[in-house]
Amino acid sequence: MQSTSHRQHSLLLGATQGIGFALARRLGRKHHHVTVTGRSQASIDQALLRLRSAHPEGSFDGFILDLKDHQAAHHILAATAGPIDHLVLCGSSEAAWGPFESLTADALERALGMKVVGYLNAVQAMLPHLAPQGTVTFIGGAASRAAMAGSVGIAATNGALEAVTRSLARELAPRRVNLIAPGLTSTEFWETMPEAEREAHFASFTARLPLRRAGLPEESADAIAFVIANGYVTGSVIDVDGGWHLG
Ligand SMILES: NC(=O)c1ccc[n+]([C@@H]2O[C@H](COP(=O)([O-])OP(=O)(O)OC[C@H]3O[C@@H](n4cnc5c(N)ncnc54)[C@H](OP(=O)(O)O)[C@@H]3O)[C@@H](O)[C@H]2O)c1
């Protein structure tokens, strides 16, 4: 078995597909030992197969974790994850999209429970295992500031994460804490939407962006790799949104 002692260990929570998976591929290439999590063994096995065939020299493993189950997640992380250098929170939230008038307390609680409470709960569980010079990176979303009708629920979720990024960067220093705010990004997340609806959504949305296209998961992964590697970046929010935040 190949030694991993010289490798940095990156733990990517919610990385069997999408931006997290693109990051796993990238960090694997950069000789990190990469641990990915997902909610089922099947999705983890599939992700590990793809990662190992893309990078036979890479070092990858994975385990099951549901960030919504706060007690279990805390326990599993505290017991299983081992020492890490970089913790990245990439698990996708239950979307609380839609007009404010019809936004239910339940939908809002589910979105906040997954992406705010779930992410913070995971960071807290991992603190004893996080290297003194380690990093925490959240994936937020441009909807936090790019005001848009129908986005109150998602703005609340991603805005809360941006606020805690600054507080945590202060509190956890010299560990570094940052957030990447993607705009519309072509990940598997969107594959649950019927194709015609998805194409119409992407077309009308990207027509209003300065860069006139959706982002690639690799572009968000690049930004995460940057904040992980740059030792002087902390408490920062990096927009990877094709200019959406410009209004
Ligand atoms: N794609 C976009 O347009 C976009 C735009 C703005 C912001 N974002 C943000 O970027 C992040 C990543 O999005 P994405 O598009 O890459 O998502 P994605 O393609 O849906 O992938 C999400 C990952 O999260 C895992 N996951 C889902 N629910 C989970 C849970 N309860 N506990 C643990 N893991 C869970 C999934 O793994 P399993 O299915 O194996 O559990 C999967 O690996 C999210 O925070 C999202 O809000 C995305």
Structure explained in plain terms:
There is one protein chain. This protein has 247 residues and is of the alpha/beta class. The chain has one domain (9-241): Rossmann fold (3-Layer(aba) Sandwich). Helices cover 43% and strands 18% of the residues. The protein has helices at 18-29, 41-54, 70-80, 105-126, 152-172, 195-206, 217-229; strands spanning 9-13, 33-38, 59-64, 84-89, 130-139, 176-182, 237-240. It has a seven-stranded parallel sheet, with helices on both faces. Helix 1 (18-29) crosses helix 7 and helix 3 packs parallel to helix 4. The protein starts with 8 loop residues before the first strand and ends in a 7-residue tail after the last strand. The mean pLDDT is 94. NADP nicotinamide-adenine-dinucleotide phosphate (NAP) binds at residues 14-20, 38-40, 43, 65-68, 90-93, 114, 139, 141, 182, 184-185, 187-189.
